[in-house]
Amino acid sequence: MYENIKFENNEGLGTVTINRPKAMNALNKDVLKELLDVFHAISEDDDVKAIIVTGEGRAFVAGADIAEMSKLNANEGRKMMRLGHQVMNCIENIEKPVIAAVNGFALGGGCELAMACDIRISSTKAKYGQPEVGLGIIPGFGGTQRLSRLVGKGMAKYLIMTAEIVNADEAFRIGLVEKLVEPEMLIEAAEKLARNIMAKAPIAIATAKTAINKGYDLGILEGSALEIETFTAAFASEDKSEGMSAFLEKRAPEFKNR
């Protein structure tokens, strides 16, 4: 079905793998279109409860496809950036949890792809960076926005302005990734985390994600009001009744809205 990515659904856990290993999984227009298509499909598929994003071979995504980008004029470049933003926004705003399993180089568009995911689990051998200024451009798939929200304004400026590539330990230290594991344990760790989340109430997971994403840039009063509304939506669900009953009855919950 896809030429540049692979998708597998294993008992509700979907895995999206960027599959251009000879090009270090670089993001060209075809890859971006396929990512947008697969995430739109996942959003409508009730059989998929959580998603892992990873890369084939020794790179997560080593960046955008510079060979393709070098041939674009400014208007064509704008169109490609808009497509990239569509992809990243779709990933960020899908109601299902998305985990980046970063297995190698996550540079430029690859770092931006990882940042669009909800949680980043990293191989200890992975490398991160936004090297675009060395090419005469800036991050264009959301990097100037998401990086500062994850690591702070000063550190984002440092990484973007210097184009420095950092190792996994440094990425963890500054808050760019949430967990480090040895390379051979990466997918297993990502799957374990995903299934842990999948065992929780789906509506609660979706509403929590919405509250965090939408409330992040609001003032505390507006964010609190948003939390009340999203809490109420979860409180009105069958999952709430089942979850609380199971707790009181000292049994495992059986959520129906999975």
CATH class of the largest domain, please?
Alpha Beta
Supply the number of structural domains.
Answer: 2
Helix content: 40-55%
Order of helices and strands: EEHEEHHEEHEEHHEHEHHHH
In DSSP terms (H or I, runs of 4 or more residues), the helix count works out at 11
Per DSSP E runs of 2 or more residues, the count of β-strands stands at 10
Question: CATH homologous superfamily of the largest domain?
Answer: 2-enoyl-CoA Hydratase, Chain A, domain 1
Give a description of the structure.
The chain has helices at 29-44, 66-69, 74-93, 109-116, 143-151, 153-162, 168-173, 186-198, 202-215, 220-235, 238-248, and strands at 5-10, 13-18, 50-55, 59-61, 98-102, 105-107, 119-123, 127-129, 166-167, 179-181. The longest helix has 20 residues, at 74-93. The strands form 2 sheets. The chain has a 6-stranded mixed β-sheet with strand order 1-2-3-5-7-10, sandwiched between helices. The protein has 2 domains: 5-198, 2-enoyl-CoA Hydratase, Chain A, domain 1; 202-248, Orthogonal Bundle (Lyase 2-enoyl-coa Hydratase, Chain  A, domain 2), CATH 1.10.12. The protein is globular and about 60 Å long. The chain has 258 residues and is an alpha/beta fold. Helices cover 49% and strands 16% of the residues.
